[in-house]
Amino acid sequence: MAPRLESFTLRTSYYSGQPVTLFKGVWPPSLREFHVRRVTLSWDGGQFSNLRKLSISADRQWALPLPRVLSILRTTSRLEEFTYAGRLARSLGGEHETIAQGSILLPAVRCLKIYTESSGAVEILKYIRVPACMDVSLEAALRGLDNPESSAQMYEGIIQFLPRIIHLKNGGNRVQIKARPAAAYFGISTVEFNLSHHTQISRVLKWMVEDLADESMEIDLSIEDPSFTTEQLDSLVPPSLNRRVSNLSLGRLGDEIHQASAILQYLSSPKLGSDGQVQWPLPHLREMAVLNRSPDLLGTLRMLRARAKAIDSPAFVRPPKVIKLVLEGDIIDSESNTDLISGVNRFLQESGGELWRREWGKGPVRHFFS
To answer: What is the pTM (predicted TM-score) of this model?
Structure first.
């Protein structure tokens, strides 16, 4: 045994799947960091009691069973950082393993990162509580959303981070929500969730908007799903829902949002609410990026004019002006777009706004016309 060993890493390029016993079952008392990859370990209850950092990377073929992971965590009350990457199985070798009842309290954990190809990340969160966690990153494929009990357990596991989210919001951080193909992303500073579902991702997005964000949070909404529709946008953030989407991005550089023109038309058109008030879509919108491969510049200009015109109409619940517009650099520089780009820029300048450009691999920068 190595009594002074503080950090140990174990990894293999090929593994037979048989559990490994290290240090003859007697672990070094000074061990504080343990990193293991593609190896299933044999352990008993007291092996990991002094660990501060634990990182497990499971092989795709030899997924670590959930009961084993939880049995480790039950004995690591001093753990400060936990990372799990890979697959997670419900049992080992087809044999069912019982999961002990009750939540696992990990009071010292400050950093939690779980990346799984299945629902494993959410499965772990159902059983652990990390009240002091400052840095959390979660990636998982969801299942069982049609089961109310399973769905409630999943949301309960994630919602435990809401106090941290509110704290970050109060520190001036903005919420990012991204609608991706079959996936939804929620991020604010050191908290991020990347959740996927093959059929019900709109439901997950709506939960993020309504339950993880609140009416005082500034939201940056990014639409990165080419098939995203105006109906989905209206359902996600209806005018009657008090959510402050102040920044909207249509597409990523080189992508194509098929209904981008329809979305621009939607943003240009108020409608009558149930209370008789005229309501504008995304009434807090002040910044917008139109980054799809073939942007509708005329539709963009019409949207800018329509929302600016509403400012002067006392009959409307008036939206703010869109004062920052981001377009792809190649679109701005294209000779075929010269007249429309000049019109967009002139209108923004007259309205007190600015035109910005974005290039591959770079952030947006303000565009200056010569």
So the answer is: 0.88
